[in-house]
Specification:
Keywords: Membrane, Transferase, Transmembrane, Transmembrane helix
Family: Belongs to the bacterial sugar transferase family.
Distance between the termini: 28 Å
Strand order of the largest sheet: 1-2
Pfam families: Bac_transf (PF02397)
Protein name: Sugar transferase
Number of helices: 8
Number of domains: 1
Strand content: 5-15%
Order of helices and strands: HEEHHHHEHEHH
GO molecular function, one term: phosphotransferase activity, for other substituted phosphate groups
Number of strands: 4
Helix content: 40-55%
């Protein structure tokens, strides 16, 4: 996999904004972890109780500038499908980029391997809580385009690589406009809009809108 994205359509950001964004990421993730830690312990216990498997699921995702990183999520699927990643790699093989009409949710939503607690934490987005550690590490930001699996980003065209110019986020502009319901072409346009218009005010707006989206569970897988 290429580690450096195309310089075409590269968007530069003021260093002051990037510094403030990083400080806010650290502060908000620390506060959120302190507040959510009791709930996270309960979720981890329930996952272990249901089938005895590990509570945390770790997967390679594509980060800023096309660099891979390990994303953390609460495990929502059973551990008996050891060939899942190999199936994903075979599933996504597009020679001319990811199709505009591709919807990741459509290919993943009907899955018998999702556990009972897994279905609940997916619907409520609680499975994403461990990504606060990714934010602390600097792999991710609170706000940004959602990180894709490597098998998908390996198929990106130079135009689609535009969404890799910033750190991926726990929530983002595309997430408050449909989350998993929107097609790839629309998601790309929304992510590029965010990248070109990044600001603290926009980030705050996205965070506030995210609360409503999570409460209504709109577009959740």
């Amino acid at each position: 996999m290429s580690k450096i994205i195309s310089q075409e359509n590269k968007v530069s950001k003021p260093k002051k904004y990037l510094l403030v964004q990083r400080i806010l990421d650290i502060v908000l993730s620390l506060i959120s972890l302190v507040i959510a830690s009791p709930l996270m312990l309960i979720i981890a216990f329930l996952i272990r109780l249901e089938d005895g498997g590990p509570a945390i699921f770790i997967q390679k995702r594509t980060g800023k500038d096309n660099y891979p990183f390990n994303i953390y999520k609460f495990r929502s699927m059973r551990v008996n499908d050891s060939n899942l990643q190999a199936k994903e790699l075979k599933k996504y093989q597009w020679e001319n980029g990811v199709p505009d009409d591709f919807v990741f949710k459509n290919s993943e939503e009907v899955n018998p391997n999702v556990t009972k607690i897994g279905a609940f934490i997916r619907k409520t987005s609680l499975d994403e809580l461990p990504q606060l550690f990714n934010v602390l590490k600097g792999d991710m930001s609170i706000v940004g385009p959602r990180p894709e699996i490597l098998a998908i980003t390996d198929c990106y065209t130079p135009e689609q690589q535009q969404r890799l110019q910033v750190r991926p986020g726990i929530t983002g502009w595309a997430q408050i406009h449909g989350r998993s319901d929107i097609k790839n072409g629309e998601k790309l346009a929304l992510d590029v809009f965010y990248i070109k218009n990044q600001s603290l005010l926009l980030d705050i707006y996205i965070l506030l809108k995210t609360i409503k989206v999570v409460v209504t569970a709109k577009g959740a897988i």
